[in-house]
Design a protein that fits this description.
InterPro entries: Quinoprotein_ADH-like_sf (IPR011047), WD40/YVTN_repeat-like_dom_sf (IPR015943), WD40_rpt (IPR001680). By secondary structure, this protein is mainly beta. The chain is built from 2 helices and 29 strands. A hairpin with a 4-residue loop joins strand 4 and strand 5. The longest helix has 24 residues.
């Protein structure tokens, strides 16, 4: 475009030069041919200047200027990518300590008030003071080891399960044992209280395919729900409303069971949007409207309750199985813990990681919030307990 304008300008200059040469006397020795020659030189110079200007990096689209032609394609717009766990901020632990003096895998349960934490492994169960602002101190050694520990909603009872036995303890000092039941045909790999505290559910280990419900007062079996085709149940959770419980299965599906309809079972995933490997952890949101599942496929997924619709898939976080999951008490975020030693806090609306919680020394076995959501604890496969203060 600039080259054409330069040539046109020079041509007009030649024409005007000829006209002026005929109207006004020329200096001595300046012939008409010389005038035309000068004009020709101007044409060439204008063309060169125009060509250089057209190819100059300061005028084209690549320099940030608008395209010179309406046919030019617009510059591509930058895309926003979900950050990975390696790209978000990290939070260091407030404290780390051993469940006992062994390196047996530790499982934790945070007392609702956040000042006490129950820790159990194959050899011991203990309660620790963790919320005083000082170094953790042992509050009570409860003795026999277990595979799981859980407080009821009020924090007044602690239930441990494992080794063909479960035990109840007073959730307040002096931590007296209030009951036990041993001699079961199989160990209870995990146990969870119903919201009203009157019953609790257990999952058998190592290959149980049913969930059993027990009366807290009498310790009697009150109901049993069997998984379809004897599929192994990997995890269980009770909804805050008490109507549903959920299970994670070795067949790569989470299931929702309706207690009010005699345990009617619903599969929450299919081959298109579900996990591709066994579901190792499940947990309900505080209002009971969502369920989070963690799988050996390195992902966690959030589901709507009770319709089973997939709401979000939490990817790009873990490099190994997701072994533990939990919603924050306000339901706005979730945490996942993996066999890759990682604990990640997630924005469940955008399905993106908020921060990585560092300091664990082994595979994550369990995660537990206090009631306020300000404290989070993790149990690790190396026997360590890690506690973070969340702000």
């Amino acid at each position: 475009m600039l080259a054409f304008a330069g040539i046109l300008f020079a041509a007009v200059l030649v024409f005007l030069t000829g006209v002026v040469a005929n109207w006004f006397p020329r200096p001595a020795g300046l012939t008409t041919g010389m005038v035309v020659g000068i004009a020709a030189v101007l044409i060439v110079v204008s063309a060169v200047v125009g060509f250089v200007g057209r190819t100059s990096p300061g005028d084209g689209p690549e320099s940030g200027a608008p395209p010179s032609s309406p046919r030019s394609k617009p510059a591509p717009q930058p895309t926003t990518k979900t950050p990975t766990a390696q790209q978000v901020q990290a939070l260091q632990p407030a404290t780390t300590f051993g469940c006992d003096d062994t390196d047996n895998s530790a499982v934790v349960a945070m007392h609702p008030d956040g000042f006490l934490l129950a820790c159990t492994n194959a050899s011991a169960t203990a309660v620790w003071n963790v919320g005083s602002g000082r170094s953790p101190s042992l509050a009570k050694d409860l003795g026999v080891g277990a595979l799981s520990a859980t407080f009821n909603a009020s924090g007044r009872q602690l239930l441990t399960a494992g080794d063909s036995c479960w035990q109840f303890f007073d959730g307040r000092r002096p931590w007296n044992q209030t009951g036990n039941e041993c001699g079961l045909e199989q160990s209870a790999a995990s146990a969870v209280f119903a919201p009203d505290g009157k019953t609790f559910a257990t999952r058998r280990w190592p290959d149980g395919s049913d969930v059993r419900f027990w009366d807290v007062a009498s310790h009697k079996l009150v109901n049993t729900y069997q998984a379809a085709d004897g599929r192994r149940i990997m995890s269980i959770a009770y909804s805050p409303t008490g109507r549903y419980f959920a299970t994670g299965s070795a067949d790569a599906h989470p299931y929702l069971w309706d207690v009010s309809h005699n345990g009617q079972r619903r599969q929450l995933a299919d081959d298109r949007d579900g996990h591709t490997d066994e579901v190792r952890a499940v947990a309900f949101s505080p209002d009971g409207t969502r369920l989070i599942s963690g799988g050996a496929d390195r992902t966690a997924k959030i589901w709507s309750v009770p319709d089973g619709k997939l709401l979000a898939s939490l990817n790009n976080g873990h490099d190994d199985s997701v072994n533990a999951v939990a919603f924050s008490p306000d339901g706005r975020t979730a945490v996942t813990g993996g066999a890759d030693h990682k604990v990640i806090e997630w924005n469940i609306t955008t399905a993106s990681p908020i921060r990585a919680l560092e300091g664990s020394g082994g595979e994550i076995t369990s995660l537990s919030y206090d009631r306020s959501g300000k404290t989070l604890a993790a149990g690790c496969s190396d026997g360590k307990v890690v506690v973070w203060s969340l702000t």
